[in-house]
Amino acid sequence: MTLSGTFLWRSAPRGILYDMKNHALATIGIAVVLVAGAAVLFVRTRPAAYVTAAVTRGPIVQEALASGNVESPTTSVLRFQSPGQLVALNVAVGQRVAAGAVLAQQDTSVLEAQLSQAQAVVAMQQAALATLQEGTRPEQIAVTQAQVQSDEVALSQSRQSLLNALMSAYTTSDSAIGNSVDLLFNNPRSTNPQVLFSLPDSQLETQLESERVAIGSTMADWSQAQLAASAGGALPIAQAESGLNAVSNLLADANTALNKALPGQGVTQTQLTTWTTGVATARTNVNAALSTLTAAETTQAAASSTLAKDQKTLALQFAGSTASTIAAQQAAVQQAQAAATAIQAQIRTLEIIAPFSGTITDTQGSVGENVTPDIAVVTLQPDQALDVKVNVSEDNVVGVVPGDPVRIELDAFPAGTSFDGKVSEVDPAQTVVGGAIYYQTTILFTKTYAGVRPGMTANVWIQTASSSDALLVPASAVTASGASSTVQLLQNGSPTTMPVSTGLKDQSGMVQILSGLQEGDVVVTGTN
Q1: pLDDT digit string (tens) for 149-183?
Q2: Range(s) of the domain holding residue 484
């Protein structure tokens, strides 16, 4: 059977064998196309895969990166960064000074006061954060409840005082009309009062008579509102102000008329003088009533505002603090600390501090004199043998000041070997390299290191700012647009645009978040 089967296979026509082969290949090809199509369809319909990172908390160091060469140091010339009055020159030629000593100082009194205020704000914000985190103690709630009760009493008293002032203002205004103004008219309370004396100005006479008619209805409205207020209704503040203004205008016009009045028609000059004195006294009384009313209104408004504020405080104490409230307060603490740090940095610009130990070789300027950045106030010969001069770009130089710590790596040493240094001087004059602006910065080794020689290539990382406890996200998660920044916060599998405030940024690509996120939030850094 085996021989027979083999014979039949070999003796089959070639065309039939070719067709069978092609049929098999076609079947395989169709299968491949179907599989590829399914794969494409899967890829097209598969939901987008996001690359994410969690918001973490930890330290961050912001550094300015530059490179240069190790050099034998020359005498360091120290200047102020801005013009100002020299208030202290603490060294003389030949004197040896230690690193960190204040050699000269401009007037820092204003900044010192600002620093004290900023540090007080930091303390206040930290205390507020501690209160939020601890929750309100029952004793504090009891104190606030007592304060609210006291505020309610004060508000009630201020309302009564305001009501009394309104009543007094009405009485004073009504007296001014009845005892001073009405003496100038025949039938003063009628619809057609007539001035008793002669006036050369008929227009003024008509105006005075019209005002006397109008003041009657104004006082009537005020009287009705005053009665309603005495029964517990709304205080007639608007009616009182309208009435006082109307009475004040009427008295002013009456005074003007009396000054222009002529004796006659049974009115003597003595009578005119008496009326003038009466109107003047009434004006004084009305103005005093208006002042008393205004003071009472202010007291009542303040009492109402204080009560509302303390009631809100009590409500918050009962409600307790939410996570978002605590996070917001943490951001407030960080912002207050940053403000204090910024002022400290400004103060440092008004001081010349010895960046290293050495000997003073020259001084310029006298106390009381105005010194500018081009004056070499102190020249210092360092004790150290070597330094590094680098060019720092204008984007990074703003945060670089003498005394900043520096990490130095030398190409001649194995990777990972680092040396400690600090900024000794930042040249105030620019250096243009390839069309870009740089500022030459001198870095001193903090001690003598064996094997370090002039000419070696050095890479330096100047620490310009740091935080030991910061919220951190990768820089790839942050999108900046002008002065604002946003991140894509992943919530329920979908990204949501969230505005954030950013702070420091380190060389590893991490960014400090001052507000907008919390530890543990997940942000999108890209897509697969």
Answers
A1: 999 999 999 989 998 999 999 999 999 999 999 99
A2: 51-68+386-528
